[in-house]
Amino acid sequence: MLSSSHMLAPILLLATTLTLGPQGQGADARIVIDRSLRREPAYSVKPHYCLLLFGPEGKTRVWLAVAGEAFYADRNGNGDLTEPGKRVYSVGNARSLTFLDSELQSFWLPVPENERIYQVGDVFDPTSHTWCNVTVRRSGRIETAFFEVLVDIGTRFRQLARLERFGDRPQDAPVIHFNGPLTIGLITSRLKRDPDGTELNAWFGTRVPAGASGAPARVIHDSAVPRDVFPVAWLDFHGQKPSSAPSRRTVSLSRRQGLVQFTGQVAVPKEAGPDKVKVQLIMPNFANRPVTSLTTELPLVEVLPPPKR
């Protein structure tokens, strides 16, 4: 069970953890996104937007809008940002509880002056009968800021998404889907032919709905994710000759890095040819829900020797 302190905890940025890799397939094409926004306040500067979806079919919608230092969140999902309580104020720059890594305890750190933390609060999704607690962190100055959205899915698990920017209009707003269908995502974009082996990195969570731009909501692998829950990869390497049978390697991505990354070490067979490597990722059910598998291909590249001096 997640503690109440975790429900308020913004995430210290871990860029290597949140680097976006190949997304593959598996987005739910059935989701229809309603981008209507009924009423907005009189902004003093140009606003920018983000749309959060909640639940299996993304029917619960929460608009986020930022205009300079003003931040708004449509917590009840009625599309009216002018209602009392829709403006959310930063918790300030004094001190804030920061969760560094799933292997470490939470503790207090000063918040840098160019960061803002907005504790949006609780959002109820009636389709899944779930209360979700939302925290948003803005890092950097307004002109170049990027955002992290952390959501506690009841007391079951947490999801984290990172956005480079909000959209200029509601029609262009990036979309993040929380507590939706779970699937595996691949962070690694290529495999290296290296005597020491090469890493394969993955995550699991909810993808961006088909046809929309945005960021995946990745499950944080803290105590809510049992130690025996991790992806397993099957890799099929083609031989040097077209007639050669593929050579299969099975890799458990049981090592956890940062907040959302699962890692395993791959030994590339010496006889592997230059063709792309077929990768299949599977994962056991999590939180009584299935996790959709992933099948994709990765290029196999040579590691160049260091230049002679």
Please state the CA-atom Rg, rounded to the nearest Å: 21 Å
Number of helical regions: 2
* Low-pLDDT segments: 1-27, 93-100
Shape: elongated
Structure description:
The protein is mainly beta and about 300 residues long. The protein has 2 domains: about 5-185, no CATH class; about 190-200 and about 225-300, Immunoglobulin-like (Sandwich). It contains 2 helices and 22 strands. It has helices spanning about 5, 15-20; strands at about 50-55, 60-65, 70-75, 95-100, 105-110, 115-125, 130-140, 145-155, 155-165, 175-180, 180-185, 190-195, 200-205, 215-220, 230-235, 245-250, 255, 260-265, 275-280, 290, 295-300, 300. Strands 6, 7, 8, 9, 11, 13, 14, 17, 18 and 20 form a 10-stranded mixed beta sheet that branches. A 4-stranded mixed beta sheet has the order 3-2-1-10, with no helix packed on it. The chain has a 4-stranded antiparallel beta sheet with strand order 16-15-19-21, with no helix packed on it.
